[in-house]
Automatic annotation (TrEMBL):
InterPro entries with a match to the protein in the record: CBS_dom (IPR000644), CBS_dom_sf (IPR046342), Diverse_CBS-Domain (IPR051257)
Signal peptide: none
PANTHER family xrefs: CBS DOMAIN-CONTAINING PROTEIN, CBS DOMAIN-CONTAINING PROTEIN CBSX3, MITOCHONDRIAL
One Pfam assignment: CBS
Boundaries of every CBS domain copy: 8-64, 71-127
Species: Deinococcus hopiensis KR-140
Presence of keyword Kinase: no
Keywords on record: CBS domain
Protein name: Predicted signal-transduction protein containing cAMP-binding and CBS domains
Amino acid sequence: MATLRDIMTPGPVTVDGQATLKEVATLMLEQDIGAVLVMNGDRPTGIITDRDIVIRAVAYGHDYGTAVTDYTTGDVFTMDANTTVEEAAEEMGRKQLRRLPVTDGGRVIGIVSLGDLAVRALGDADEEALKGVSIPNNS
């Protein structure tokens, strides 16, 4: 059975909470990525996406020098690298996650996106995750 370690993108791009929107947007451009993990030491405290920058900051005319912590999605849910792809897909669907940081011994070592599930995973795991993310959460 495939695990998250098998399909993750290793070494996710990270910044500390003092990074500015401009710095993060520049990293996204240079690395050709759509999400950056915000860290406090070894602990992820948030994630910011290109969409977060546009919808939460640019659309309101906010200063690009503002710290990213004002625009991140907090309470980062992670899963261990040895978790099966199927288990991860179920959790991503249940929690409506598009990106999942992967840990080993509590340290972030990679990230899995819905795209990784769709392109790299075998079986219907990606379909389950897509269903969960696509269905509005009424709670």
